[in-house]
Amino acid sequence: MSPLAAASDPDRDFSGVWILDEHQSDLRGLPSAPAALLNITQQGSIIQCLETDQDGQSARTWVYRTDGAPAKFQIGDSRMNSLAKWEGSALITNTIVSGSQNYSVADHWQLSHDHNTLTIRRQIQKASGEIEAVLVYRNRYAKDAAAAPAGTAAARPGTNQQSPGEIVVPAGTKIPLALLNSLNTKRSSEGDRVYLETSFPVVIGGRIVIPRGSYVTGTVTEVKRPGKVKGKGEIFLRFDSLTLPNGINRDFRARLDGSDTGDFDRDEGTIRGEGDKTGDARRTAETTAAGAGVGGIAGSAAGHPAMGVGIGAAAGATAGLASVLLTRGPDLILPKGASFEMVLDRNLKYKSSELGL
Fold first, then answer.
1. Same domain for 208 and 340?
2. Are 19 and 37 in contact (CB under 8 A)?
3. Does a structural domain hold residue 156?
4. Do the domain assignments include residue 160?
5. 13-41 burial, b if ≥16 CB within 10 A, otherwise e?
6. pTM of the entire structure?
Protein backbone atom coordinates (compact mmCIF):
# COMPACT_ATOMS: atom_id res chain seq x y z
CA MET A 1 0.00 0.00 0.00
CA SER A 2 1.35 3.46 -0.90
CA PRO A 3 2.09 6.05 1.83
CA LEU A 4 -0.78 8.20 0.52
CA ALA A 5 -3.24 5.29 0.74
CA ALA A 6 -1.97 4.41 4.20
CA ALA A 7 -2.47 7.97 5.39
CA SER A 8 -6.08 8.00 4.14
CA ASP A 9 -6.92 4.75 5.92
CA PRO A 10 -8.63 5.70 9.22
CA ASP A 11 -7.38 2.50 10.89
CA ARG A 12 -3.83 3.66 10.18
CA ASP A 13 -4.27 7.27 11.23
CA PHE A 14 -2.92 7.88 14.75
CA SER A 15 -3.30 11.66 14.50
CA GLY A 16 -4.64 13.31 17.62
CA VAL A 17 -3.91 14.18 21.20
CA TRP A 18 -3.62 11.08 23.41
CA ILE A 19 -3.67 10.96 27.22
CA LEU A 20 -2.05 8.08 29.10
CA ASP A 21 -4.55 5.90 30.98
CA GLU A 22 -2.40 4.63 33.84
CA HIS A 23 -5.15 2.38 35.23
CA GLN A 24 -5.46 0.49 31.95
CA SER A 25 -1.73 0.45 31.25
CA ASP A 26 0.83 -2.01 32.55
CA LEU A 27 3.95 0.07 33.20
CA ARG A 28 5.65 -1.99 35.88
CA GLY A 29 8.59 -3.07 33.74
CA LEU A 30 9.50 0.34 32.28
CA PRO A 31 12.76 1.91 33.49
CA SER A 32 11.18 5.41 33.39
CA ALA A 33 7.68 6.87 33.27
CA PRO A 34 6.21 7.20 29.75
CA ALA A 35 4.83 10.43 28.32
CA ALA A 36 1.62 11.61 29.99
CA LEU A 37 0.42 13.02 26.67
CA LEU A 38 1.21 12.29 23.02
CA ASN A 39 0.44 14.79 20.27
CA ILE A 40 0.67 12.82 17.00
CA THR A 41 0.50 14.22 13.48
CA GLN A 42 0.69 12.22 10.24
CA GLN A 43 1.45 13.47 6.76
CA GLY A 44 2.10 10.97 3.98
CA SER A 45 4.67 8.49 5.26
CA ILE A 46 5.78 10.68 8.20
CA ILE A 47 4.47 10.14 11.74
CA GLN A 48 5.65 12.83 14.16
CA CYS A 49 5.14 12.55 17.92
CA LEU A 50 5.47 15.29 20.51
CA GLU A 51 5.64 14.05 24.10
CA THR A 52 4.62 16.27 27.02
CA ASP A 53 4.58 15.77 30.77
CA GLN A 54 1.74 16.19 33.29
CA ASP A 55 2.24 19.97 33.33
CA GLY A 56 2.00 20.22 29.55
CA GLN A 57 5.71 20.94 29.10
CA SER A 58 7.23 19.56 25.90
CA ALA A 59 9.66 16.75 26.63
CA ARG A 60 10.85 15.43 23.28
CA THR A 61 9.90 15.05 19.63
CA TRP A 62 10.54 12.02 17.43
CA VAL A 63 9.60 10.70 14.01
CA TYR A 64 8.73 7.41 12.32
CA ARG A 65 8.76 6.82 8.55
CA THR A 66 6.52 4.20 6.91
CA ASP A 67 8.12 4.33 3.45
CA GLY A 68 10.91 1.90 4.39
CA ALA A 69 13.51 4.60 5.08
CA PRO A 70 15.14 4.74 8.53
CA ALA A 71 14.36 7.64 10.86
CA LYS A 72 17.33 8.95 12.82
CA PHE A 73 17.02 11.45 15.68
CA GLN A 74 18.63 12.44 18.96
CA ILE A 75 17.00 12.46 22.40
CA GLY A 76 19.28 13.74 25.12
CA ASP A 77 22.57 11.85 24.83
CA SER A 78 20.93 8.91 23.04
CA ARG A 79 20.89 8.38 19.27
CA MET A 80 17.81 6.69 17.82
CA ASN A 81 17.67 4.70 14.58
CA SER A 82 14.13 3.52 13.83
CA LEU A 83 12.48 1.40 11.15
CA ALA A 84 8.69 1.18 10.87
CA LYS A 85 6.31 -0.85 8.73
CA TRP A 86 2.61 -1.66 8.51
CA GLU A 87 1.17 -5.07 9.33
CA GLY A 88 -2.50 -4.72 8.49
CA SER A 89 -3.72 -1.77 10.53
CA ALA A 90 -0.92 -2.14 13.11
CA LEU A 91 2.28 -0.11 13.07
CA ILE A 92 5.39 -2.17 13.90
CA THR A 93 8.50 -0.23 14.89
CA ASN A 94 12.04 -1.27 15.83
CA THR A 95 14.38 1.31 17.33
CA ILE A 96 18.08 0.85 18.09
CA VAL A 97 19.21 3.17 20.90
CA SER A 98 22.90 4.07 21.20
CA GLY A 99 24.47 6.21 23.92
CA SER A 100 25.27 5.80 27.58
CA GLN A 101 23.14 2.67 27.36
CA ASN A 102 22.63 0.49 24.28
CA TYR A 103 19.34 -1.33 23.81
CA SER A 104 16.47 -1.85 21.36
CA VAL A 105 12.76 -1.04 21.56
CA ALA A 106 10.04 -2.90 19.58
CA ASP A 107 6.57 -1.34 19.52
CA HIS A 108 3.21 -2.58 18.24
CA TRP A 109 0.70 0.27 17.76
CA GLN A 110 -3.00 -0.50 17.30
CA LEU A 111 -6.16 1.63 17.32
CA SER A 112 -9.40 0.37 18.84
CA HIS A 113 -12.40 -0.13 16.53
CA ASP A 114 -13.91 3.20 17.62
CA HIS A 115 -10.50 4.93 17.21
CA ASN A 116 -10.75 6.29 20.77
CA THR A 117 -7.97 4.13 22.23
CA LEU A 118 -4.35 3.73 21.13
CA THR A 119 -2.59 0.67 22.60
CA ILE A 120 1.19 0.41 22.39
CA ARG A 121 2.72 -2.95 23.30
CA ARG A 122 6.40 -2.43 24.01
CA GLN A 123 9.38 -4.78 24.31
CA ILE A 124 12.74 -3.46 25.45
CA GLN A 125 15.78 -5.67 24.87
CA LYS A 126 18.77 -4.97 27.10
CA ALA A 127 21.88 -6.96 27.88
CA SER A 128 20.34 -7.65 31.29
CA GLY A 129 17.17 -9.12 29.78
CA GLU A 130 13.79 -8.28 28.24
CA ILE A 131 11.21 -5.79 29.55
CA GLU A 132 7.57 -5.82 28.42
CA ALA A 133 4.94 -3.14 28.98
CA VAL A 134 1.55 -2.01 27.69
CA LEU A 135 0.74 1.68 27.22
CA VAL A 136 -2.92 2.62 26.75
CA TYR A 137 -3.73 6.14 25.55
CA ARG A 138 -7.22 7.70 25.31
CA ASN A 139 -8.22 10.20 22.65
CA ARG A 140 -8.45 13.54 24.43
CA TYR A 141 -11.51 14.58 22.45
CA ALA A 142 -13.35 11.26 22.41
CA LYS A 143 -16.89 11.11 23.71
CA ASP A 144 -17.04 9.75 27.24
CA ALA A 145 -20.17 7.69 26.68
CA ALA A 146 -18.27 4.43 27.05
CA ALA A 147 -16.50 5.44 30.26
CA ALA A 148 -16.74 3.02 33.16
CA PRO A 149 -19.18 3.91 35.97
CA ALA A 150 -17.67 5.78 38.90
CA GLY A 151 -16.20 3.54 41.56
CA THR A 152 -15.53 0.58 39.26
CA ALA A 153 -11.99 -0.73 38.93
CA ALA A 154 -10.42 -0.69 35.48
CA ALA A 155 -8.86 -3.90 34.26
CA ARG A 156 -5.21 -4.05 33.29
CA PRO A 157 -4.42 -5.25 29.76
CA GLY A 158 -3.09 -8.78 29.74
CA THR A 159 -5.33 -9.95 32.58
CA ASN A 160 -7.96 -12.57 31.84
CA GLN A 161 -11.03 -10.35 32.17
CA GLN A 162 -13.83 -12.48 30.77
CA SER A 163 -17.55 -12.99 30.91
CA PRO A 164 -19.12 -16.15 32.33
CA GLY A 165 -18.69 -19.11 29.99
CA GLU A 166 -15.74 -17.44 28.24
CA ILE A 167 -12.14 -18.65 28.15
CA VAL A 168 -9.29 -16.29 27.28
CA VAL A 169 -5.85 -17.17 25.93
CA PRO A 170 -4.00 -13.99 26.97
CA ALA A 171 -1.77 -11.82 24.81
CA GLY A 172 1.84 -12.81 25.28
CA THR A 173 1.09 -16.55 25.21
CA LYS A 174 3.79 -18.43 23.29
CA ILE A 175 2.63 -21.28 21.03
CA PRO A 176 5.07 -23.79 19.47
CA LEU A 177 4.44 -24.60 15.80
CA ALA A 178 5.65 -27.01 13.10
CA LEU A 179 5.80 -25.97 9.43
CA LEU A 180 3.61 -27.99 7.03
CA ASN A 181 4.88 -26.51 3.73
CA SER A 182 8.51 -25.73 2.98
CA LEU A 183 9.71 -22.19 2.23
CA ASN A 184 12.90 -20.84 0.68
CA THR A 185 14.25 -17.51 -0.48
CA LYS A 186 14.61 -18.70 -4.10
CA ARG A 187 10.99 -19.66 -4.80
CA SER A 188 8.91 -18.07 -2.03
CA SER A 189 7.64 -14.53 -2.52
CA GLU A 190 5.71 -11.84 -0.67
CA GLY A 191 2.07 -12.82 -0.14
CA ASP A 192 2.64 -16.60 -0.19
CA ARG A 193 0.56 -18.52 2.33
CA VAL A 194 2.23 -20.40 5.18
CA TYR A 195 0.66 -23.47 6.81
CA LEU A 196 1.60 -24.74 10.26
CA GLU A 197 0.18 -26.77 13.12
CA THR A 198 0.55 -26.49 16.87
CA SER A 199 3.04 -29.00 18.26
CA PHE A 200 2.06 -28.69 21.93
CA PRO A 201 -1.32 -28.01 23.59
CA VAL A 202 -2.12 -24.67 25.24
CA VAL A 203 -3.66 -25.17 28.67
CA ILE A 204 -5.66 -22.47 30.50
CA GLY A 205 -6.96 -23.12 34.00
CA GLY A 206 -6.11 -26.81 33.77
CA ARG A 207 -8.13 -27.25 30.55
CA ILE A 208 -6.79 -27.73 27.02
CA VAL A 209 -8.00 -24.74 24.99
CA ILE A 210 -5.81 -25.10 21.89
CA PRO A 211 -5.09 -28.81 21.27
CA ARG A 212 -1.98 -30.11 19.59
CA GLY A 213 -2.57 -30.36 15.84
CA SER A 214 -4.59 -27.13 15.56
CA TYR A 215 -3.94 -25.35 12.27
CA VAL A 216 -2.29 -21.94 11.90
CA THR A 217 -2.14 -19.98 8.66
CA GLY A 218 0.27 -17.17 7.98
CA THR A 219 1.70 -14.99 5.25
CA VAL A 220 5.18 -14.35 3.89
CA THR A 221 5.45 -10.57 4.22
CA GLU A 222 8.94 -10.15 2.72
CA VAL A 223 11.69 -12.26 1.11
CA LYS A 224 15.30 -11.17 0.63
CA ARG A 225 17.64 -13.35 -1.40
CA PRO A 226 21.31 -13.57 -0.37
CA GLY A 227 23.61 -11.10 -2.09
CA LYS A 228 26.54 -11.84 -4.38
CA VAL A 229 29.07 -10.06 -2.20
CA LYS A 230 27.44 -9.94 1.23
CA GLY A 231 24.05 -10.37 2.87
CA LYS A 232 22.12 -13.44 3.88
CA GLY A 233 18.76 -14.75 2.75
CA GLU A 234 15.88 -13.50 4.92
CA ILE A 235 12.21 -14.43 5.32
CA PHE A 236 9.65 -12.40 7.27
CA LEU A 237 6.52 -14.20 8.49
CA ARG A 238 3.18 -13.05 9.90
CA PHE A 239 0.60 -15.33 11.52
CA ASP A 240 -3.05 -14.63 10.64
CA SER A 241 -5.51 -17.25 11.94
CA LEU A 242 -5.88 -20.37 14.07
CA THR A 243 -8.34 -23.21 13.48
CA LEU A 244 -9.08 -25.77 16.19
CA PRO A 245 -9.57 -29.44 15.20
CA ASN A 246 -13.35 -28.97 15.63
CA GLY A 247 -13.37 -26.21 12.99
CA ILE A 248 -13.63 -23.18 15.31
CA ASN A 249 -11.58 -20.39 13.73
CA ARG A 250 -10.13 -17.16 15.06
CA ASP A 251 -8.38 -14.42 13.10
CA PHE A 252 -5.56 -12.70 14.96
CA ARG A 253 -2.16 -11.15 14.56
CA ALA A 254 0.81 -12.90 16.10
CA ARG A 255 4.52 -12.51 15.59
CA LEU A 256 7.44 -14.87 15.32
CA ASP A 257 9.26 -15.32 18.63
CA GLY A 258 11.70 -18.12 17.86
CA SER A 259 12.94 -20.62 15.27
CA ASP A 260 15.21 -23.67 15.26
CA THR A 261 16.13 -23.03 11.61
CA GLY A 262 18.49 -20.33 10.39
CA ASP A 263 19.62 -17.33 12.40
CA PHE A 264 16.63 -15.81 14.22
CA ASP A 265 16.63 -12.07 14.99
CA ARG A 266 14.15 -11.46 17.83
CA ASP A 267 14.28 -7.67 17.44
CA GLU A 268 13.18 -7.79 13.80
CA GLY A 269 11.25 -11.08 13.82
CA THR A 270 13.45 -12.24 10.95
CA ILE A 271 14.85 -15.64 9.98
CA ARG A 272 18.22 -15.35 8.24
CA GLY A 273 20.20 -17.95 6.34
CA GLU A 274 23.83 -18.85 6.88
CA GLY A 275 26.79 -17.47 4.91
CA ASP A 276 29.03 -19.56 2.62
CA LYS A 277 32.58 -18.54 3.57
CA THR A 278 33.82 -22.12 3.27
CA GLY A 279 32.42 -22.44 -0.25
CA ASP A 280 33.93 -19.08 -1.26
CA ALA A 281 37.36 -20.11 0.01
CA ARG A 282 37.11 -23.51 -1.72
CA ARG A 283 36.19 -21.96 -5.09
CA THR A 284 39.09 -19.49 -4.86
CA ALA A 285 41.57 -22.22 -3.83
CA GLU A 286 40.43 -24.57 -6.61
CA THR A 287 40.81 -21.96 -9.35
CA THR A 288 44.16 -20.81 -7.89
CA ALA A 289 45.49 -24.40 -8.04
CA ALA A 290 44.16 -24.91 -11.54
CA GLY A 291 45.72 -21.65 -12.69
CA ALA A 292 49.05 -22.59 -11.16
CA GLY A 293 49.00 -25.94 -13.03
CA VAL A 294 48.23 -24.38 -16.38
CA GLY A 295 50.80 -21.62 -15.79
CA GLY A 296 53.46 -24.18 -14.90
CA ILE A 297 52.94 -26.08 -18.14
CA ALA A 298 53.02 -22.91 -20.19
CA GLY A 299 56.10 -21.65 -18.32
CA SER A 300 58.00 -24.91 -18.86
CA ALA A 301 57.35 -24.73 -22.57
CA ALA A 302 58.80 -21.20 -22.57
CA GLY A 303 61.76 -22.12 -20.34
CA HIS A 304 60.45 -20.24 -17.25
CA PRO A 305 58.44 -22.79 -15.19
CA ALA A 306 58.56 -20.86 -11.86
CA MET A 307 57.36 -17.63 -13.45
CA GLY A 308 54.59 -19.55 -15.21
CA VAL A 309 53.39 -21.07 -11.94
CA GLY A 310 53.22 -17.62 -10.27
CA ILE A 311 51.39 -15.96 -13.14
CA GLY A 312 48.99 -18.88 -13.44
CA ALA A 313 48.24 -18.89 -9.71
CA ALA A 314 47.49 -15.16 -9.75
CA ALA A 315 45.19 -15.57 -12.73
CA GLY A 316 43.46 -18.50 -11.05
CA ALA A 317 42.96 -16.56 -7.82
CA THR A 318 41.46 -13.67 -9.79
CA ALA A 319 39.09 -16.06 -11.56
CA GLY A 320 38.14 -17.64 -8.22
CA LEU A 321 37.37 -14.24 -6.69
CA ALA A 322 35.26 -13.35 -9.73
CA SER A 323 33.35 -16.60 -9.25
CA VAL A 324 32.62 -15.66 -5.63
CA LEU A 325 31.47 -12.16 -6.58
CA LEU A 326 29.16 -13.47 -9.30
CA THR A 327 27.65 -16.26 -7.21
CA ARG A 328 24.89 -15.69 -4.67
CA GLY A 329 25.24 -17.04 -1.16
CA PRO A 330 23.17 -20.08 -0.15
CA ASP A 331 19.40 -19.56 -0.14
CA LEU A 332 17.58 -19.87 3.18
CA ILE A 333 15.54 -23.08 3.25
CA LEU A 334 12.83 -23.69 5.85
CA PRO A 335 11.94 -27.39 5.46
CA LYS A 336 8.67 -29.06 6.26
CA GLY A 337 8.64 -29.86 9.97
CA ALA A 338 10.78 -26.85 10.96
CA SER A 339 9.91 -25.61 14.45
CA PHE A 340 8.78 -22.08 15.25
CA GLU A 341 7.33 -20.25 18.21
CA MET A 342 4.75 -17.51 17.87
CA VAL A 343 3.59 -15.09 20.54
CA LEU A 344 0.05 -13.66 20.61
CA ASP A 345 -0.24 -9.87 20.31
CA ARG A 346 -3.83 -9.87 21.59
CA ASN A 347 -6.20 -12.03 23.60
CA LEU A 348 -7.92 -15.02 21.97
CA LYS A 349 -11.42 -15.56 23.36
CA TYR A 350 -13.55 -18.71 23.15
CA LYS A 351 -16.91 -19.69 24.54
CA SER A 352 -16.93 -22.83 26.66
CA SER A 353 -19.49 -24.33 24.28
CA GLU A 354 -17.07 -23.90 21.34
CA LEU A 355 -14.50 -25.97 23.19
CA GLY A 356 -16.95 -28.64 24.34
CA LEU A 357 -16.37 -27.70 28.00
1. yes
2. yes
3. no
4. no
5. bbebebebbeebbbbeeeeeebbbbbbbe
6. 0.42
